[in-house]
Structure formats: structure tokens, C-alpha cells
Amino acid sequence: MKKLLWILPLAGIVFAACSTVSMTGRKQLNLVSESEILSASLTEYQSYMKTAKVSTDAAATAVVKNVAERIAAAAEAYLTVTGQTADLQNYAWEFNLTEDPNLNAFCMPGGKIVVYSGMLKLIGNGADRDDELAAVIGHEVGHAIAKHGQERASQQMLASMGSSVLGAVVGGASAETQQIVATAYGMGTQYGALLPFSRKHELEADYIGIVLATIAGYDANAAITLWQKMEAASGGSAPAPFMSTHPSSTKRISELQKNIPKVKAEYGAASQPAAKTSTTKKATTTKSSTSTKKGTGFKIG
Ligand SMILES: [Zn+2]
Q1: Which residues constitute the domain of residue 89?
Q2: Which of 32, 74, 130, 165 could be cross-linked to 215 through a Cys-Cys bond (beta carbons 3.0 to 4.6 Å apart)?
Q3: Per-residue model confidence as pLDDT tens digits over 252-295
């Protein structure tokens, strides 16, 4: 009986700590505060950037920066139009291309976007380069705006801790909380071996990714060719971190094929033509603040 007693307050906490992912309407657990996630993420991002090799390829950096800025602007426009303006203050966008042969990219909570050179190499320099890059970055920004890191940290707390610790967690920050937040987001010493997101999170990020790419004026169909390339590249070897182990490429592609026409119909009218980056253009910075495209007038149904 004693063992069961803690379930009651716990159930109350869980109920009180549920929030909703606005783009999909899914309910999510939210036991970790925004400020804790943001500060843990910033710390981990800064330590990653200290050891990462920032690309010196100005043309390639300009390509990444251009697409990432447009996706960031689409995310901000979406948050604005849907009334989530309080979340806007959490984003201080940064865009980076780092020299790393792995097929990976990420967007930290708070908007720190990194694309690995290996991913850009896989995409290649064809006519659909920016569209495919938009699918990658849109997916990663999707994890961030749907607060998947926060949700995973919350799930981890719930799974691994008892009510006494939960009480402390909900009551305020602690060193333990910081550790759990970092671990749950696959950060810290585990960097480069990111914990895979769950199947549910991956599919949700795929969906948000095609919405953001569409709002930003890119062709969402490129998400399909991107996954086909990823699948071909992974061959029989271990899956790339970006790809995660699940869901399978087949499942992702069939979901994308189902969702893309709907997303294009719903958000396509709002999109802005995406100018291709000239590969000769010089990038002088990898850091930028993105102006919010307010009042673009797209309808969120
Ligand atoms: Zn993902």
C-alpha cells in the first residue's frame, strides 16, 4: 500500500504538466522548465562548438546559412501566427556548418543549428540542393519547436525517479536536473552519439519539417528524395545519427507521401519563393539574428 501512495501526487503532477504540440495537437509531458532546458542546451552547444571544426568553405556555409535562416523565419512566423509569441523569446538563432563526415545535423532548443559537412556532401549540388537541405533543417527545427528535448527529459525523470525527486524537480533546479536534461537530450560526453529520438518524435519532426519547408517556399517533396539518399548511403552499416534507428525509411517515406499534398494545400499559399544561394556568394558570418516575417498572412487551419 505504501508503495502505491506516491502514485497519487505523481498523477497530479503529470496531469498538471501536460502541454500540447500545436502543429500536431499531440499532448506531451512537460516536467522540466523551459529555462532549465535552454541553459543546459546552451552549455552543451558552447562546449560542442569549442571542439567542432567550423567550415572554412564560405560558399557552402552561405548555402546552409541561407536555408537555415529561411526555416528559422518560417518557424518564427508559425509561432507568431499561432499565438505562441511567448516562445519567440527563447530563440537566439545561430547557423553553422561544421567539418564532420557523419550524416548529421541538429537544432538545439533555443535555435542553435548545426549541419555537418557530410550531410551537405550527401545532398550534393543539384537543383534540389536547397530543398533537401530545407528538409533536413526543417526536421531538426521541428524537434526544437515541438520541445522534444524537454519531453524526453520529462519522460526520463518519470521513468527513473521516485516521487521525492520529482517533487524536488518540479520545485526547482538542481544539479541532478541539469544532468538529466543533458543526458536526455543526448548531449555532453555523448555528443556525436545522440540518443535516438522516439519513433513518435521522429515522425512528428518529419511532419513539422515539411510544414516549415513549405512556409519557407521550398519543395517539401525533397524530403522524400532526401530519405532515399539517406537510406542508400546507410547501406548495411550502422544508421546515421540523423536517421535514427526507427522508424524505418519506408515508414517515414510513406508518411511523407501521405502528408506532403495536405501540407502543400494548407500552407503552400503562404510560402515565399526561396531564392537559391549562389555558390560564389561569400559568407562572412555564421551567426545571425533572423527577422520575424510577421503578418505574412498565411492561414493555419
Ligand atoms: Zn530527428
Answers
A1: 30-270
A2: 74
A3: 899 999 999 999 999 987 666 555 555 443 333 344 444 333 33
Return d(Cα 216, Cα 78) in angstroms, integer: 10
Structural contact between residues 3 and 138, judged by C-beta atoms closer than 8 angstroms = no
d(CA 115, CA 119): 7
Q: Is residue 300 part of a domain?
A: no
Residue 135 DSSP SS3: helix
The structure's pTM equals 0.76
CA 23 from chain centre, in angstroms, equals 14
User: Residue type for 26, please?
Assistant: R
Distance 285 CA to ligand 1 centre (A): 26
Determine, yes or no, domain membership for 219: yes
Residue 94 appears among annotated catalytic residues? no
CA of 4 to the centre of ligand 1 (A): 36
How do strand 27-29 and strand 105-108 relate by DSSP bridges?
unpaired
d(CA 21, CA 148): 9
- For residue 17, being part of any structural domain is answered with no
Q: Indicate which residue of 44, 140, 151, 202 is catalytic.
A: 140
User: Is 285 a domain residue?
Assistant: no
Query: Is the Cβ–Cβ distance between 281 and 62 less than 8 Å?
Result: yes
